[in-house]
Amino acid sequence: MPLSQSIIFFTGVGVGALLFALGIWGGFGWGRRRGRRDATAPLQGAELLGIIEALSQWTSEYSGNVTRYQDELSSAARVVQETIETGNPKTTPIVKVLDDIMTSNQSLKQRLDDAERQLEKQTRSIEAYISEARTDALTKLPNRRAADQRLDEMFSAWQKGGPGFVVAMIDVDHFKQINDRYGHPEGDAVLQHMAQLLTNHIEGAYMVARFGGEEFVALMPPPLRVAADRIDRFRKIVADQTVTVADQEIEFTISVGVAECRNDLLIGPIVRRADEALYAAKGMGRNRVYFHDGKQPILVGAPEVAV
């Protein structure tokens, strides 16, 4: 390569390096300004996780860019070295400049690699935090927050032509009496056993979650009556179970209200109909399943109803 072309090439490389550095500086400056601007706006966990993942991807991309840039500079340095070996000493300062640029880039690459590892560590920590924030500590089921989010997602999908779903509100009967008679640790054991039964026997459910206290929710595929019959079979399984805690045999039953989407504009009316069916089940003696047909709760199954 003629010396004049080498000078032009290396001048271009130097300008590229300067623009690259300015781009990084500008990017960090924008990030700081944006951080100040949004400091008062609370971030949801999922949003924060998305930001961290984006930063991690950005860091990985730029780390790769720096690696490729170093390879290009190494190749250019070899060209200049060959020119020097031909006996033209005027290119020696160019080699010194290239060496300095490569040293700087090696340092930058190390910092980017360190930052990427730190970002990946932060991402894992935030994922663990989000999972914990959406999991009930006692039963290990999804909690109310997770259930509400899933309800919103499914309802939004249904409005856009997606599949419908059935909401089953499940309540442990006379749970306060269980706590008062056996103790709170034993009551906790009943809830844990209930969670295990839900996990094992409500197959194909979109989600089962602890909704709060002794109340659980199951999001199930339609049609409504099929889902209600499945829940009634589950009610019978629960009634036949006992929980052994500290040599005590604890029996318990459940009451359930079931409802489905019916030309609703909001998710609230669906949950309200399920609650109305649950209240009917409890009001009529408990250990019952009612579904709501859009007009009124209707009995599905109870101890006195023949199979």
From TrEMBL:
Entry keywords, A to Z: Coiled coil, Membrane, Transmembrane, Transmembrane helix
Ranges annotated as spanning the membrane: 6-28
GO BP field: cell adhesion involved in single-species biofilm formation; negative regulation of bacterial-type flagellum-dependent cell motility
Entry GO terms, CC: plasma membrane
CDD domains found in the cross-reference section: GGDEF
E.C. no: 2.7.7.65
Coiled-coil ranges (or none): 98-132
The GGDEF domain, residue ranges: 163-294
PANTHER family: DIGUANYLATE CYCLASE DGCM-RELATED, REGULATORY COMPONENTS OF SENSORY TRANSDUCTION SYSTEM
UniProt name for this protein: diguanylate cyclase
